[in-house]
Hints:
Carbamate kinase; eight-stranded mixed beta sheet; 2 domains; six-stranded antiparallel beta sheet
Amino acid sequence: MKKILKFGGSSVGNAERLKKVVSIIEKTLDENHEIYVVVSAFQGVTDSLIKISLDVRDGKYEEKSLLTLLSRHEDIIMEVGLDSDAELGVIFRKYSTDLKELLLRCPGASVDFNMWKDEVLSFGELLSVRILSALLRSRQTDAELLDARKVVITDSNYGNAYVHYQKSYDRIREYVSNHGRLQIITGFLGANEYGKGTTLGRSGSDYSASIFGAALNVDQIEIWTDVDGMLTANPEFVNQPISIPELTYEEAMELAHAGAKVIFPPAMIPALYKQIPIVVKNTFRPELPGTRIAQNRKLQGQITVGLSSVSHVTLLRMQGAGMVGVKGINARLFTCLADKGISVMLVSQAFSEHSTCFAVKPEETDLAMMLIDDEFEKELKAKYIEPLRVESDLSLVAVVGEGMQYTPGIAGLVFQVLGREKINVEAIAQGSSRRNISFIVKDSEAQQAIQALHRIFFEKSKS
Ligand code: ASP
Ligand code: MG
């Protein structure tokens, strides 16, 4: 089989973990698979580099933070026994000086700041990939670094760049056909058409894995992380969430959107178009099957596959007699929010058209309210619309599953369970895909709601 193996930050957090990664790679090679490895920065490194960049810009930077970051890498180099690798030593020192010099060239708060920051961030992946490939070579696996900035072509939206697929696919294929050794690839990184480095957004190395997978037409993309796959519920809420064996791409997206953060939905797009299965596996328990995400799954009698949740959301309710039958109210409402970059997490409008309610992140609440008050100033004055109502400290919960489309009574069951638990539902929405029933409850009741639903849907024997 031809495979991508992607290791996230948590899989490369320290020396011991790095050794686990090496053994997974070696085992896969022993099984005669053709593989390409995509790697993130060591755990926490991107966060530190972002902090350093902002501190430099704001004049708060202390060299100590960079030295801590570098010595963490040095410690790992020592602990995996690479301290006598002269070539790695030279490269490590070069990266250290380059990074120090780069920090001196911060363009301040100008438009070039994000471009400069992406260059700073690239050191996270460059360092982790260098160290991993040196470690593999020291164990006779003929590996080399592939700096993805050579082959992943993006626009110039620094920090969250959009990938030009076809151009990137052509470059990746050409590069790989000229390089025979095992490629250890920097996740998260790309470059624009002028060769200036970009990054693909936080957690972007899943996206990198998907892009390389699609370019190389692999049979499978493996996302190696620190959990047993995608779980039926957030382990903070449920004692024993179950690892979901199989999901469709759509189900995985519904689960990921509403809080089950294992794979970032946009990362799936290239894989989905090529219908390449994605398998989520636990680096620390590689013997477990993990979760397989693909076009189809055997239904195996499962109507629902999981519960996802996001806590601390705010619900805004707009209502008024003046909204009934008037065209364009929702368009204006959501446009004024979108124009200022506010993302709406759930929307619900009853067909009386008398009220619309929607959920936003708490930190965006004040801005949202201000924008709406501005947009509807006239209607508010005329009392066509009532002042916005705000309710905070709420949780969004979603029941997800492909089988709900074909099975009557699931919504009934969900709300019956909540009723039995005496939990008041603040708002309800069913995803247009009919694979998702979402509702909002108080933060303080979210755990009880999730536990009760988990018992009914996933611990049948105990209910
Ligand atoms: N290192 C990057 C980040 O932390 C990319 C990734 O981990 O996927 O966001
Ligand atoms: Mg990460």
